[in-house]
Design goal:
Length: 495
């Protein structure tokens, strides 16, 4: 029999329904891998006893014929999601030991459908990063690293712990959040599927905020169908979230079976940037051919304001972050450092509580919102953001999806680019435009680099047409037939 940790969510649900194995057996196998994967630092908090309790409850549900949509499925939950009475720190020192008295809407929906929590996944502090190197709890190591001791690779960020846990078989699926690429880029680096839904599709309530007009929750899984299954549960209107959109959630799994012949695929010329590696370009061309082979129509398109997306994002996002993070003052919750007066206490608490990257973005954000600079930077950035969104709206009159690379490079080494923020920010060059426009995007594993590292292709769709990018993603999944295993997992299996 196939090892339980090699199953997809879909396969696991079928096995549980047929009583081939129990939820408790499934969860114990994942706990075993999670313990072994501690060297990868995927988790910042474990909830193994809770997982066993939830699994036993799932077995009772299955026995009574009352199985729910994700009954018994072990998940990793990004540390940005508040989980009642359990570690929820956004991987920041300033929220160390914070135990929220409430549950996020997304995780509430997952538990209501029988999902099981293995632990809280590591991430870049407050979701600010593209490498998972800014976490208060240390870097996550990509399980695909050629040598995790001599040359550890980053898993991408900010949802690096979630993507690494899924790739390493330390979770069957995971939640992530995407502000400028924080689901899609780590999915590409770790060889898994990462779906960023349309802004407003999944509730933000109970998710610790980075940039409120950009943050969006989504699933990280090992297959397209699994992403569809998780999104069906995670999505939906929430009156507690003022940005939540009241629109019907489709049956994404059923939509996957629709015919995709005649699909119109756009190829944006602006994404062929200087410095794009030959192997990424070659993979992109291969992806175009896969669609042509399946009867899709390929069209060249132009998104002229794409070149302004990255600077726009790094004005808008830090501005919103500086506002959102002003609440962490050491008074009501979180880390407190005593001072001579209130202002001194604020300053000292934030100085020791926030990491360097978070401080950098707060300072940038405060600067662009300050008197004399607000119009020159923030207002102008918002105007450019509107132009970027308009570009997408225009091209989507004639096409169904846009095909691009997910990231300009494979996973880089831990410690690399940390001294060069601009080089680090360039990792988001292909993912940020869709985020600024609030569009759904998905990264699908499509190949292996010459160094044996995964490479992903990205699909971008119209607002609330996640079904379309999932169907298109299935073409990549079937054509690429990506079945390689991370180096760490292969070594573990030999032991």
């Amino acid at each position: 029999m196939t090892s339980l940790v090699d199953l997809t969510i879909s396969d696991a649900l079928s096995g549980l329904k047929a009583k081939t194995f129990s939820a408790r057996e499934l969860v114990e196998d994942y706990i075993s891998v999670a313990i072994d994967s501690e060297v990868l630092n995927c988790y910042v908090a474990q909830s193994y006893d809770l997982a066993r309790l939830q699994a036993d409850q799932s077995d009772e549900k299955i026995k009574r014929g009352e199985a729910r949509a994700l009954e018994g499925i072990p998940l990793a939950i990004k540390d940005l999601f508040c989980t009642r009475g359990l570690h929820s720190a956004a991987c920041s020192g300033i929220l160390q030991n914070f135990l929220p008295p409430y549950e996020s809407t997304v995780t509430s929906k997952l538990w209501a459908e029988g999902a099981v929590m293995v632990g809280k996944a590591n991430m870049d502090e407050f979701a600010m990063g593209s490498s998972n190197m800014t976490s208060f709890y240390g870097s996550v190591v990509n399980p695909w690293s050629e040598d995790i001791e001599k040359n550890p690779r980053v898993p991408g960020g900010s949802s690096g712990g979630s993507a690494a846990a899924v790739a390493a078989r330390a979770a069957l699926g995971a939640t992530g959040t995407d502000t400028g690429g924080s689901i899609r880029q780590p999915a590409s680096f770790c060889g898994v599927v990462g779906l960023k839904p349309t802004y407003g599709r999944c509730s933000r309530w109970g998710i610790i905020a980075f940039a409120s007009s950009l943050d969006q929750a989504g699933p990280i899984t090992r297959s397209i169908k699994d992403a569809a299954l998780m999104l069906e549960v995670m999505a939906g209107y929430d009156p507690k979230d003022s940005t939540s959109v009241d629109t019907k959630v489709p049956d994404y799994s059923a939509e996957l079976e629709r015919d995709f012949r005649g699909l119109k695929v756009g190829i944006p010329m602006e994404y062929r940037i200087d410095g794009l590696s030959g192997e990424i370009m070659s993979l992109w061309d291969k992806g175009i051919q896969w669609f042509q082979d399946r009867g899709a129509e390929i069209r060249d398109i132009s998104l002229p304001h794409t070149k302004y997306a990255l600077p726009t994002y790094y004005i808008v996002a830090p501005a919103e972050a500086s506002s959102n993070l002003a609440r962490y003052d050491g008074v009501r919750f979180g880390k407190r450092q005593d001072g001579e007066n209130l202002i001194d206490m604020y300053s000292k608490s934030r100085a020791i509580g926030f990491g360097e990257e978070v401080k950098r973005r707060i300072l940038i954000g405060t600067y662009v919102l300050s008197a004399g600079y607000y119009d020159a930077y923030y207002i102008k950035a918002q105007k450019v953001r509107a132009r970027i969104a308009e570009d997408f709206k225009s091209v989507f009159k004639d096409i169904d999806v846009i095909l691009t690379p997910t990231a300009p490079t494979p996973a880089f080494s831990v410690g690399e680019k940390m001294e060069d923020p601009i080089a680090m920010y360039m990792n988001d060059v292909f993912t940020v435009p869709a985020s600024l426009a609030g569009l759904p995007g998905i990264s699908v594993p499509a190949g292996i680099s010459r160094n044996g590292l995964p490479l992903g292709l990205q699909l971008i769709g119209r607002p609330f047409e996640e079904s379309t990018i999932l169907r298109a993603g299935k073409i990549i999944e079937e054509s690429a037939n990506f079945d390689s295993l991370p180096n760490w997992l292969k070594k573990r299996d030999k032991v």
